[in-house]
Amino acid sequence: MNLALKDINHNLGRFLLTCLGLSLLLGIVLAMVGIYRGLIVESLGLVRAAGAQVWVVEGGTRGPFAEASRLPGDTRIAIAAQWGVAAAGGVSYQNVEAQHRGQTKRLLVVGAQIARPGEAKSVDEGRPIIRSRYEAVVDRGAGLMLGEQIKLGRNKFTVVGLTTNLVASGGDPVIFITLRDAQKLQFDLTPAAARREAARSSGTAGATDTVNAILVRLMPGVDAKRFAQDITRWKHLAALTQEDQETVLARSVVDRARRQIGLFTTLLLTVSTVIIGLIIYTMTIDKKKSIATLKLIGAPDRRIVGLIVEQALAMGIISFVAGAALISAGQGYFPRRVVLELTDAAMLFGVVLAACLIASALGVRTALRIDPASALAG
Amino acid sequence: MAEPPVVEVRRISKHFGEGSARVDALREVSLDVFPGTVVGLRGPSGSGKSTLLNVIGCILEPSSGAMRLSGELVYDGKWLRADLRGLRLEKIGFIFQSHNLLPFLNAWENIAVARILAGASPAQAKGRALELLTYLGIERRQDAMPGELSGGEAQRIAIARALANDPRIILADEPTAALDSPRAGAVMDLLRKVATERRTAVIVVTHDEKIFDRFDHIYSLRDGALTPPIAA
Lengths: 378, 232
Fold this sequence. Notes:
heterodimer, A: alpha+beta, ten-stranded mixed β-sheet, two-stranded antiparallel ribbon, 11 helices, B: alpha/beta, seven-stranded mixed β-sheet, four-stranded antiparallel β-sheet, globular
C-alpha cells in the first residue's frame, strides 16, 4: 500500500493542477535548453556546410564569425599554391535586408566561388549556382520558391536551389550568391560618398576584391593543424582548423546566449524548486494529524519520509513528462529552431529529481518534528 | 491461577520544568490493569489523565518509576527499548476522540495500514481488515471513505484499526466524546466485547458520566495523584 499515491489520489484534482503549472515552468526550461542547442546547430550548420578543413582569415583575428576579417581576394591564389591544398575558395559574409512580396527579410548573404570550398553543398531542391552572375541558392526559411527573384542591392537574383536549416547564428536564413556578386553587392550598398572614397583610395582599403576568409580543403593525409600553424607564420594571416572554428562559434559567438539561457534556466529551476517545496510543505501541514496518527500507531520515520519524498518525486516526474510532451508537440511553432536532445532531457530530468529531493527537505523536517502525542489532542 | 497484569505502573512520576516553574503532572502513580478488564480514568482538566495515557502509550518519557507492559519491563528510570514505535505497534492499540482515520484511505485500508506497518503483506493485511470489519459488524462499509462514514461507524473502524495487530493493551482517549448516548453505549459495548473475547486490557480516559457504569474499575486523577479504584 503506497500511502503517497493514496494521498495523491485523494487530492487528485489539486495535485494535477499543481503539476500542470509546474509542467509549464519545466517545459520552458526544456525549451530554453532546446533553443540553445538549436542556436549551436544553426551556427555550426553554416560552418559545416562550407566543407572546409582550414579557415584562413586576417592576421590577429578569429574571423569571420567571431570578429571582422578582411583579406585581399588574391590571397586565395597564394594559399591554393601551398603544398597539400586540394582546393581553396574565397568567401564573404554580409547581412542584408531585402524586400520580398511586400515584406522585409533579413538574410545572411554568403558570397562563394563556384565549385570551390564555401559554395552551397547541400542543395535539397533545384541545383547549385552554375552561372557567374545573378543566381542564388537560398534557405527555405526565407520563404522563397525556386525560380522566384529577389532584389539584393540594385540587382535581381533568381533562386535556382533551396537548402534546409541553413541559417546564421542570429537565425537569419542564408542566401548563397557568387563571390563576384557579393562583392558588387557590398559595393552597391555603400553610400555614394563612401563609394567615391573607395574609388579614390588605393590598396585594400579601397579595393572591392576583398573576402572575409579563404576556405581550404586539404589533400588526404595532410594534417590540418600543422597546415594552419604554417599559414599563421605568414604574420598577416591567421588560420583556424574546422574544429577551432566550431569551438570559436560554440564558445565565443553563442557564449552570451549560453550564459543568458543558463541564467534563465537556473532561475526557473530555482523557482520550480521553491514551488515544489512550498506545495510539499503545505501538503505536509494538511496531513499533520494523519502523520501524528501514523507515528503514534508505530510507523517508522522512513515511512513518513517516504510519504513526503515520493509525493515530491511524483510531482516532479509528472510535471517533467507533461512539460516535455508539451514542448515536443509545440517545438515547430517556436520562432527559433528548438533542438531537443535526449541527453539534455535526461540531464534536466536528473536535475528535476534532485530539485524535488531538495524541495521535500522542508516537508520532511516538518513531518519528523510532528509529535505523535498531538494525535491524541481532540 | 490469576493472570498477571498486562499494564504494571509503579511509582511513576512526571514533571515538566524545573525550580519555581516545575509542574508535577504525575505523582508516584501506581496502577495494575489485568487482561479482559475495562478501566476508566477520569478527572478534571489538567489532572494528569492524558499524561498518564501518554506514558503508558510510550509517547512521553516519565521522570521516574518503572513500567511493565504485557510482562516486558519497558521503563525503569529510562526507556529500556530504543524502538518505542515498534513497541507501540506490537503491544498497544490506540483509539482517539475524533477517530483519526487517515482521510486518503478507505475503511479496510485504514485497518490494514496498521498491519502493513507491522510487516504483514498487503494480502494478509486486507484479510485481517475484512475479518475485523466482520467481527465489528461493519463489513458492508469496507470501501467507504472516512468522509462517508457516520461518527459511530468511523469509531468502529478506529477500534478495528486498534485491534489490527492483536495488541494486549488498548488505550482510548475519550472515544465517546463526539458520539450521542446510543452510539457511545454501542462503542463501549464493543470495547467490552474486545476485552472479554480477546483478553485485552482496555484503558479509557473519559469525562462522559453516561458510560461510567460500563467500566470494571474507575480511577480518578487529581493534581497528578491517582485515587484508589472504584468498582463501577
